[in-house]
Amino acid sequence: MARTRTKLLCSSLLVLLVLSVCNAASSSVQLQLTGTSLESSAGAPSSGSSVVFDIDNYGAHGDRKHHDTKALGRAWKAACSSPRPAVLLVPRGKTYRLKPITLSGPCTSSVVFMVQGTLVAPRSRSAWSDKNRRHWIVLQRVAGLTVTGGGTINGRGKIWWRKSCKTNKAFPCKGAPTALTLRLCSNLKVENLNIVNSQQIHLSVEDCSAVQLAGLSITAPGTSPNTDGIHITHSKDVQVRDCLIKTGDDCISIESGTHNLHVSRVVCGPGHGISVGSLGDDNSRAEVSRIYIDTVRLYGTTNGARIKTWQGGSGYAKDIVFQNMIMDGVQNPIIIDQNYCDSAKPCKNQTSAVEVSNVVFRNIRGTTVSKDAIKLSCSKDLPCSDIALENINLKLEGGNGDTESTCQNAEWRKSGNVFPLPCKGKN
User: Of the candidates 118, 121, 82, 66, which has an alpha carbon nearest to the alpha carbon of residue 99?
Assistant: First the structure.
């Protein structure tokens, strides 16, 4: 056990070292971009082949007291209309208060949103109306957008968590803002950022294509409700790599319309693990395919590799691979749940379901805090099919007893050494 924990610790330190190297490299790039041109008082000083738009030159204070929302909007408008590639700069060493804001394209040239300082949300929920309560910072309809800089986006989510029905059932269940939403973007990069204490989801990628997410640190308390780290929906050709995610919900949630997603070298925990779904809620149709999760380490998460669908849905979740994963004290290391129900009232039985097929769980090892290390709970009317378990070794934390597996309506096969034995013949 001590040897295993040492290996896990070394692996985590390696990931953190990679992130540090990325941060240092990005800082060097930032200095080259800004150069001495930031000393100019003009609204758009040039820097090499790019034009830098410093939000301070558009009236931002960065003093934690004034709201700098309008200044950021003015700077964005100028950067987005620049005939040359633009850098929208949030200077380091300052904290800028922002009310809800949407920055829209299309833009004339590519834009780099360089967040070197800190962006913070309002302290009061009154800054949001019922109409805009689901978003804080939105960037949309931009091709060739990069969001980077090594700075911090702080949602100040505590005031929202206290009023959540997940925290206190006396409160009504209402949506809360996503800290950073990227919508209808192509050739998108989000890298080298710290996103902390979001009101709800930290980073949401919606209706985007050709996306790279790298070197992100996303953190919130394990008790914070619905604070998914990275949420991906209706997007294709997405890569996520070298990220550290510690939240109160899914580290990565993969929703309907996601196709060709590659996730690698991610450290997750606390949180609810890596989840495909939930899919098919409110009798909706869901389509998810070509999902590759590779080289992930999970610490103390509720789930590890998970697929969750509601009864009554339709569509499919297929061609999914979870491989090279290490679990440390995970409650449900491997789980498919076609009877998912996250509702205050019991969910009624329904015959239709999202079809789950061609799923591979490969090279997964570590420890679990529950005996059921493998759970395949599938639909009676539309069983899970072509489920492969390959080289699995999941032991009970502390070594007190053996782990088990359970299956309902699942068609599975095993390859190599698999422990616990899959479903003990109960199929």
Answer: 121
67 is catalytic: no
**What is the dihedral sign for C-alpha 70, 76, 77, 79?**
positive
Residue 228 annotated among the catalytic residues of the structure: no
In terms of residues, how long is the chain? 427
Tokens of 32: 């080259």
Q: Any idea where the domains of the chain sit in the sequence?
A: 2-40+87-93+113-425
pLDDT in tens, 211-243: 999 999 999 999 999 999 999 999 999 999 999
Choose, from 135, 202, 231, 272, the residue flagged as catalytic. 272
The reported pTM is 0.89
Please give the sequence-ordered ranges of beta strands (E in DSSP) within 197-311, or none if there are none. 203-206, 209-219, 230-233, 236-246, 252-254, 259-268, 274-279, 285-299, 303-310
Q: Do strands 145-148 and 111-115 pair parallel, antiparallel, or not at all (unpaired)?
A: parallel
Q: Tokens representing 64?
A: 């934690």
| Annotated catalytic residue within 68, 242, 249, 328 | 249
Identify the CATH number of the domain defined by range 2-40+87-93+113-425. 2.160.20.10
State pLDDT tens for residues 152-169. Answer: 999 999 999 999 998 888
Candidates 409, 400, 283, 410; CA nearest to 348 is 283
Closest among 284, 190, 200 to 234, alpha carbons compared: 284
